[in-house]
Write a sequence for this structure.
C-alpha cells in the first residue's frame, strides 16, 4: 500500500499540486485520472521520488520515502518497477537485453538465473518467442508488453505506469489494461496507473483518484463514478462521446 499525505508542489511560484492525500491499495491497479495539465504526472513523479514535494509525505507500506534514511530510500527504489510512456525501450538492444537490463544494473544475479527470470517475465506477458527480436520489429502493443516485462523483472512491490495505452488502438489497450490488472493481482503489487483513457477507467478502475487543477476532488470505484455529484468530474468523464451517449440512455 502507498499512502500520500498532504502533498503540495509549486514550480516557479505556481502551485501545481495542492494538498493531495490518498491511499493506493495493494493487488490492484489504482488509477490517477484527470484532464491534461492537471498535475497527474507531477503527482506520480512526487510519489516515485523524481520530484521532491514542497510539503507532505509518501509512505510505502508505512516507510516514509522522503524522511527515511538513505538505506530506506535505496530499499524502496529497488522495489519499484516503471512502465514509461511509449515503452522507452533501447532500440539497439534485443527484447531480452531490454528486459534483462534492470537485472544487469541492479543485481548480482548469475547469468542463468537472469535468463530464467527474463524468460519467465516474457512468458507472463505473452511474448515467449520474442527474445531475439529488435524493438523495430515489434508492434506498439508488443513494445508495451516488453516494457511491462522489464518493469516486473526485478519482482517489484510497486508498479507505476504512465499512460500505458498512449498510441494503442482500443482493443490492444484493453489487453494491456487487463495484463496490468492481472499481474498486479498475481504478484500482489501496488500499481498506480496515470491515464485519461475512459475505457481504462471503466475497465479496470477498481480504485480511482480524480485530480482537478492540482487537487484531489474525488476518490472511488468505476461503479461509483457516474453518480459522484462532482460537476468537474462529470465534465471530464462525459466529455467522452461513448460515456455521454450512455448517460442519455440512462
Ligand atoms: N519541472 C517542471 N517545471 C515547471 N512546470 C512543470 C514541471 N513539470 C510539470 N510542470 C507543469 O505542471 C503542470 C501539470 O503537469 P503534468 O505533466 O503533471 O500534467 P498531466 O495532468 O500529467 O497532463 P497530461 O495528461 O497532459 O500528461 C503543467 O502546467 C506543467 O507545465
Amino acid at each position: 500500500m502507498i499512502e500520500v499525505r498532504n502533498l503540495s508542489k509549486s514550480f516557479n511560484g505556481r502551485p501545481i499540486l495542492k494538498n493531495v492525500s490518498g491511499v493506493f491499495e495493494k493487488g490492484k491497479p489504482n488509477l490517477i485520472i484527470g484532464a491534461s495539465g492537471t498535475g497527474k504526472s507531477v503527482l506520480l513523479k512526487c510519489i516515485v521520488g523524481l520530484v521532491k514535494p514542497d510539503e507532505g509525505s509518501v509512505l510505502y507500506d508505512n516507510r516514509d520515502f522522503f524522511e527515511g534514511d538513505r538505506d530506506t530510500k535505496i530499499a524502496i527504489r529497488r522495489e519499484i518497477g516503471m512502465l514509461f510512456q511509449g515503452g522507452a525501450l533501447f532500440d539497439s538492444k534485443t527484447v531480452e537485453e531490454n528486459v534483462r537490463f534492470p537485472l544487469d544494473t541492479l543485481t548480482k544475479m548469475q547469468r542463468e538465473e537472469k535468463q530464467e527470470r527474463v524468460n519467465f517475465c516474457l512468458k507472463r506477458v505473452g511474448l515467449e518467442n520474442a527474445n531475439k527480436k529488435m524493438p523495430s520489429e515489434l508492434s506498439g502493443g508488443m513494445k508495451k508488453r516488453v516494457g511491462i516485462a522489464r518493469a516486473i523483472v526485478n519482482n517489484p512491490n510497486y508498479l507505476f505506469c504512465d499512460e500505458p495505452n498512449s498510441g494503442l488502438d482500443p482493443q490492444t489497450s484493453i489487453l494491456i489494461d487487463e495484463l496490468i490488472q492481472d499481474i498486479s493481482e498475481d504478484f500482489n503489487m501496488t500499481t498506480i496507473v496515470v491515464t485519461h483513457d475512459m475505457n481504462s477507467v471503466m475497465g479496470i478502475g477498481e480504485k480511482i483518484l480524480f485530480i482537478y487543477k492540482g487537487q484531489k476532488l474525488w476518490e472511488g470505484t468505476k461503479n461509483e463514478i457516474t453518480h459522484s455529484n462532482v460537476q468537474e468530474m462529470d465534465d471530464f468523464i462525459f466529455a467522452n462521446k461513448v460515456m455521454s451517449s450512455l448517460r442519455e440512455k440512462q
Notes: Residues 170-186 form the longest helix (17 residues).
